[in-house]
Each structure stands twice: as C-alpha cells, then as structure tokens.
Request: fold
Amino acid sequence: MGIELEETLSRELHEVADRLAVPPMPALPAHASSGGRRPSRRAWERPLLVAAATIVVLAVVGLLAAQEGRHDLQPAPSPRPSDTGWAVASGTTVQLGSGKTVDLHRPVGFLYQTSAGVLVMFGSEKAPWAGSRRYALLSDDGATRTDFTIPVDDIQPGTDPTQPYVVYAQATDSPTTWDLVVRDLRVNKVVDTISVKGSYTWTDNTPEGVPDVFLSGSHVYISFDDTAVSVDLKTRKVTPNDVLPASEVLNIDGGKALSFGDMTFSDDGTIENTWQIVDIATGDVVLKSDGADERHVTSVSPDGSHAIVSAGGCTGSSACDKLPSTAFIYDLDTGDHVELDAKDALLSWTAAGSVLRVTPTAGTVDVCGADSATCESTKLDVGKSDVQLTDVMNW
Reply:
C-alpha cells in the first residue's frame, strides 16, 4: 500500500471514529459479570470500535482501490435507444435496433417491418428488374432465415409492422381475377388465398399487369381501374372502397391514406405540390397542404397517428441549398406539431411510431418521440453511403 493510500485511510478512520455513536452499555445482572462486577465502559466500547473500524477499512480500501484502478475499468457500452423496433442498411449490411448487425453479402434493396422480424429484399445486382432478388428475415438477435422465396417479381409486397404476414397478388387464367396470397413469415407458409376481381390496366409499372397491394392492420387495399377495394383478411370479404382513389398509386399506413395533387415546378427549381391525408375508416381529411405548398408529407407513422412534413423537393443545387433543415412532426388527431432538426438527415419510423433519424455524415442513429421531439442516440454501425431505411426503395 502506498504512502498516499495509508495517509488517506488513516484520515478516514479518525473521522469515522470521531463520529461513531456508541450505544449505552446494557445493564447486566451482577452474577453475569466477572467477580460480581459490571464490565467497564471501556471494555464495552472496544469491540464496537474494532468492528466499526474493520468495516471502514474494508469500505475505504475498496473505494480507493477502485479509484486507483479506474483506468483499468472497461468503458461503458454505447447507449441504445429504448425503442429498438428499427433497422437501417448500407451496402450489404443491416443494423438492427437491438444492436446486432447482419451481413447478407449482397446489396440490400428494401427493408420491411413486420411483427415476425425485419424482412429484407436483397440481390446480387442492385436493380429489382435484374431477376436476382432474394428475401431474408432477420430476428432481433441477428438470426437470419433465407430458406424461402416470395414470388412477386418486380411488384412490392404488402407488410405491416403489427402483422407477421407478407401479402401479394398473383395472376390467374382470367385477366380480371387475382389471387391475393397471404404468407405467414413465422412458419413460411401460405395460410390463405383470396380471390379478388378487378381490371388492372391503368399502369404498366408492374410485370404482367399484376397489381400492387397494401397491408394495413388486417386489411389489404388495391386500386383497380374503376374502383379501389378493401379485403378483410379475417372475414375474407372484398368490398369497394369509395374513400380511396381508383387508377392511382396508393400510400397507406396505419389506416391513413396519403394522396398527392398536381405538382408544379418554379423557375428556381423548387417543387410545389398539394397533398392530403385521409382517414380510410371515416373519409375525413386529417391533414392537408395549404394551397401550393413547398412542403410535402414524407410519410405517415405505422400506427397512423403522426406524419412527417418536410421541405419540398428541388431540381437544382441552388434551390436545394435554400431548403430549411427542419421537419415538422404532426399529430393527426390534434393537428399540433413539433419541430425536429433534420439537417443532413434521413427520416423514417420505428415499428412503434417513433421518428427514426439517421445522419450519415455524423454517423448517428436517433430515435425521437413523435410528440416531444426528444431523441435517444446511438452509433451508426453500417457504412455512411447509400444508407437505407425501412420502407424506402434503394434500387
């Protein structure tokens, strides 16, 4: 023990001894003491002081040893946000909110949130039309399943963070009849196939005219030529939906539909557009742009409670430099909003509805409250180029 440690220990012992409260000596019967005499107060105090001193010695030695050896202690691990329901990717590697990273050895094209895990579309070539796309299901512990195929060619399958299913349409012998396939990712089996009728000729963006489908909760939505339809997966009932547009691309999350109006381009390269968010169950418009708005809705949260509204798009570098670096997170029930710093950031959502903010230049991932804009941060453990977030195409 060094001189400095001895001096500190001695000083601590004296201070504790001076402050030590000694209890009164108990009254003992005369026959219990030696020779019929009571033990002296000094005899009673000594074992107490020895015991107290022993305790103090052990405590102080432990404290000082920890202080002297502090440089040998392991550094605390990087904190992780409490909401772990997210994933980001760069190149061939996926980072999960649980802290695990998974290298799929082929470029990642799309990340889907499901209750069974993160479904990853990836392939040997970075283009969906290359015919090399594959799928992997990643669990929170990093376990990876690639022993299944999803025969959707170039269309986007439907998923929902609250459901373990992936849904997609397949052609039949009739050009106006489609099989809506429901595959349970937990067991990798088709658990239902529902027949849906409708003409789908309004777009040639999907192979063989197969429609895109959108899963929100227990309902699937499809936009045909003449009408949009809703398919209840619990009852298997197919009904026309007057709230959703026909012959248009659908954007649906959490029972809310996002639609866009006309888009105009100004001389300086900025884009002005009109948009609105509609509650599918009621048909009510819960948020919309104010005329020709330079802002646009990036996305609606998976639970349909909030929306991210950010600066409008641009086509020229000078216009891009003028765009604000703030995003507005709107509560779709109250219309209230909070501001979130979005400088150099990519924004999306966690499965639970928190805002996911990834800033590649800073190497950080933040999970932010949709109502408070307060954030928890962690390190971005994948590459900083071509960072991929859930529900954002990366081809």
Summary: The chain has three helices and 27 strands.
